[in-house]
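subagent[fold] <- orchestrator: predict structure for attached chain, return tokens only, no commentary.
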Amino acid sequence: MENFEHILEQYEPMITSILKKTHIYKNHDYFRQAARIALWKAWHNFDSARGDFAPYAYRMMLTTIYTALRKDNQYHESQIPYEKGTLSSLVQSSDQRSMPDDTSILLDRLADYLTADEFELLKDLYYHQYKYDELTDKYHASVAALKKRRDRILKKLRLKFRESYQRKSL
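subagent[fold] -> orchestrator:
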């Protein structure tokens, strides 16, 4: 078969077509590179006894783009609106009497969205910075259960803040 540079030049229009079909509107260079890598893998693994190269390459590139999109979406959905350091400082400042107005408002919002147990778990994790092993006795749960509980709490906060933000933007 031909060298890869010639194949890449020949299939660039197909890559562009795939990017349009999958409605890529951001990180264009990242997804184009992912499609090129998929084309190289298809070229490298192609067996002419199993059929033509074009449909095989198309399917490999399309599958790779969809996989990259799924991973990108999962990454952005799992991002915490506040980083760990910010949560730690918020919880620490809740124990102090002299809080800036912005911090107290934010903590009031957190308290509105969380139960006392949920807030206590976040406080133990981010303020007191206990390890999960140290909290298993206090919460009568395994490390995996505590991590799952923390994930649910953060997801709940993300959804509430997103809803609140969307209401304000309307």
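orchestrator: received. Logging for downstream: The CA atoms of residues 87 and 126 lie 6 Å apart. The two ends are 57 Å apart (CA to CA).
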